Amino acid sequence: MKKIMLLIAVVFFIGGQLLYAQTREISGVVTSSDDGTTIPGVSVFVQGTTIGGITNLDGQFSLKVPNDAKV
Fold first, then answer.
1. What gap in Å lies between CA 47 and CA 33, rounded to an integer?
2. How far apart are CA 11 and CA 67, in angstroms?
3. Would you say the pTM of this structure is higher than 0.70?
4. How many CB atoms neighbour CB 51 within 10 A?
5. Cα–Cα distance for residue pair 55/15, rounded to 1 Å
């Protein structure tokens, strides 16, 4: 019985790691092309998906995106 429980725990652990590995986190800062100042409240999206967010007061953003996301 202990061997079966250990096997189930290992399978869940490995499965969880594989699911987690399918995304990555990207971050950045949105700045003005005129004077280089940061821009708060800008919408940032991954093209072709519904994944997105808004920059904070310092113009920074962070998104969890699929590994195959390009733009």
1. 21
2. 23
3. no
4. 15
5. 33
**Can you tell me the distance from the alpha carbon of 48 to that of 26, in angstroms, rounded to the nearest whole number?**
16
DSSP per-residue string spanning 42-68? -EEE-TTSS-EEE--TTSEEEEEEETT
For 57, residues 6+ apart whose C-beta sits below 8 A from its C-beta are 40
Calculate ∠ Cα 4-8-11, nearest 5°: 140
Nearest CA-CA partner of 60 in 33, 40, 46:
40
Structure tokens at 65: 């995106």
Model pLDDT for residues 16-67, shown as the tens digit of each residue = 555 555 888 999 999 999 999 999 999 999 888 889 999 999 999 999 988 8
